[in-house]
Specification:
Strand order of the largest sheet: 1-2-13-12-7-6-3-4-5
Helix content: 40-55%
Largest sheet: 9 strands, mixed
Oligomer: single chain
Shape: globular
CATH class of the largest domain: Alpha Beta
Number of helices: 20
CATH topology of the largest domain: Rossmann fold
Distance between the termini: 49 Å
Number of domains: 2
Structural class: alpha/beta
Radius of gyration: 24 Å
């Protein structure tokens, strides 16, 4: 057997920095913030028992009642670096509050709650997972807890285990599950509280309080290293255009952050394309224009970043996807009959796409009813449409360069790597926050840490009512309460910064090479936050 990876062991020894408000947690208490987070009136009707709760804020008190607690924790959805630190923070906090407290991990995601599959998480068991990537300690899953049977099974599990609290670590859909469970438990007079933790590399779980979800920082650093490496190869060989699709689901947060980190020739921001109602043909022309302009100055190479959710924002494709979602929500429909049920405009849009993309658009939706955009090869679609456009321009004498394209997809490699120091500290603090909310018997809250660009010692600690983040959206052909995805704000400082510089990056080769994420050494190397977080504050 090979010797153990020394980096894994060294990272295990890293001691995350806690906000001063969470140090000596037995003297940390919640108080009502200065305002109540209300939210949508329609949501009030669906969540009468948990709607209208106050925002909570941690402050220090001399005497706080600390309970012996039994708590369950579950990972929901895709992996994001730092998840294990939420668990270690949660466990350490529970034991600090009362040494007799116990933590249980539900196995393979929310299905573990339904089927009562779990294991106790002791200090000895979790020790090797401190500051490590992945969710492999207990696994994850995408089962959505929404049917009456699911809710009843979850309540039965929680009651039979005599849990005081359930912590759901997940993205917008998973935290929607947390809100639904907390309302259901309360309606059944259960004493168990439900707490959500904001997880997703996509960066689309953010609001006026939550500045970023955990995992985003690490994923962007991993992707940016790869983009920088590709850019250096590109500048060395000077013969390829690299079309790099980046994971991130609907929002373009990762594409924007990686663009700021590496300064490629072009970053397609899906939200801007939707704002300007650009068609697939117009996007193709936009890319072809850059390639032609660079060819005129002898440059037949470049870097183009593409958010994976781009295809959902192209107006004619967006309408097509909405129609397909509605049709595919009917499980009895034959996929061969779907084309005939589309509107005329959508038939035209569907027919114009390559057969491979057509098939990808018809793939089964995820359990939350979302298009699985990571399976749609948008980068290949754009290479194909740009190639045809350049051939046309060449024939018309408007392009004399050479076009050779390579495609890449950066996604899964960014989800389970060693978490950055930022994500280690952030996640550990979120775990502590969850324990403190359960000790306070607060239910239907999301853990929130603010002031993230400051020294972690100075971070502030909040509890945000989940219902205040919710809205109604069409899912699987029905209106359902969900936590709204936060898209790139075209009025934000980070997007404005990109707009100011993109013309220079378009023709110049101003590539940056971030290199590998650093864990040891000077703080300016190890403890940096994302560009977009730093700029937008």
């Amino acid at each position: 057997m090979l010797p153990e990876n020394p980096l894994r062991k060294a990272r295990e020894k890293y001691l995350p920095i806690l906000p001063s408000l969470l140090q000596q947690i037995d003297n940390s208490a919640w108080v009502n913030d200065t305002h109540t987070a209300l939210g949508n009136a329609e949501i009030h009707a669906l969540f009468p028992l948990t709607f209208g709760q106050p925002v909570l804020r941690v402050q220090k008190k001399e005497s706080v009642e600390n309970r012996l607690m039994r708590v369950g924790v579950v990972f929901s959805g895709g992996q994001a670096a730092g998840g294990h630190n939420v668990i270690t923070g949660l466990l350490d906090a529970l034991i600090s509050l009362n040494p007799e407290s116990r933590l249980f991990g539900f196995l393979e995601g929310p299905e573990g709650i339904i089927k009562s599959k779990y294991k106790e998480l002791t200090k000895e068991l979790v020790q090797p997972y401190r500051n490590q990537g992945g969710f492999d300690l207990i696994g994850s899953g995408r089962t959505k807890l929404e049917t009456p049977e699911h809710l009843a099974s979850a309540l039965n599990t929680v009651e039979s285990m005599q849990l005081d609290g359930l912590v759901i670590i997940g993205g917008d859909d998973s935290n929607t599950n947390a809100a639904i469970l907390s309302e259901y438990f309360k309606s059944k007079n259960s004493q168990a509280v439900v707490i959500g933790v904001p997880k997703t590399i996509d960066g689309d779980l953010k609001n006026m309080h939550v500045a970023t979800s955990f995992g985003f920082d690490t994923a962007c650093k991993i992707f940016s290293e790869a983009i920088g490496n590709i850019a250096r190869d590109c500048l060395s060989a000077k013969k390829y255009y690299h079309f790099i699709k980046l994971m991130g689901r609907s929002a373009s947060h990762i594409a924007l952050e990686c663009g700021l980190s590496t300064q490629p020739n072009m970053v397609l921001i899906a939200e801007e394309i939707a704002e300007n109602k650009k068609t697939l043909q117009q996007i193709t022309h936009q890319i072809a224009d850059v390639i032609c302009e660079r060819a005129e100055i002898g440059k037949n190479f470049g870097i183009i970043l593409i958010p994976e959710g781009l295809i959902e924002f192209i107006p004619e494709i967006s309408v097509l996807i909405q129609e397909l979602n509605h049709l595919l929500a009917d499980s009895s429909i034959d996929k061969k009959e779907i084309f005939n049920k589309l509107t005329e405009n959508s038939k035209e849009s569907f027919a114009s796409l390559p057969e491979g993309i057509q098939q990808q658009l018809l793939l089964n939706r995820d359990p939350h009813g979302n298009v699985q955009v990571s399976f749609i090869e948008t980068e290949k679609l754009l290479i194909e449409t740009v190639t045809q456009e350049l051939k046309k321009r060449c024939k018309d004498g408007k392009y004399t360069g050479k076009f050779s394209a390579l495609h890449h997809f950066l996604g899964y490699e960014g989800r389970a790597g060693f978490p950055s120091n930022f994500d280690c500290n952030y996640c550990y603090s979120l775990g502590y926050t969850a324990a403190l909310l359960i000790n306070h018997k607060a239910t239907g809250y999301m853990c929130c840490i603010t002031g993230l660009t400051k020294n972690p010692i100075d971070w502030q600690v909040l509890g945000i009512p989940l219902t205040s983040l919710m809205d109604l959206e069409w899912r699987k052909g029905k209106k359902k309460p969900v936590i709204k995805k936060a898209l790139v704000d075209l009025g934000s400082k980070s997007f404005s910064f990109y707009k100011q510089h993109r013309d220079a990056w378009r023709l110049g080769d101003h590539y940056l090479y971030p290199g590998p994420m650093q864990f040891f050494g000077e703080k300016q190397l190890t403890d940096t936050t994302s560009y977009s977080l730093s700029i937008d504050v």
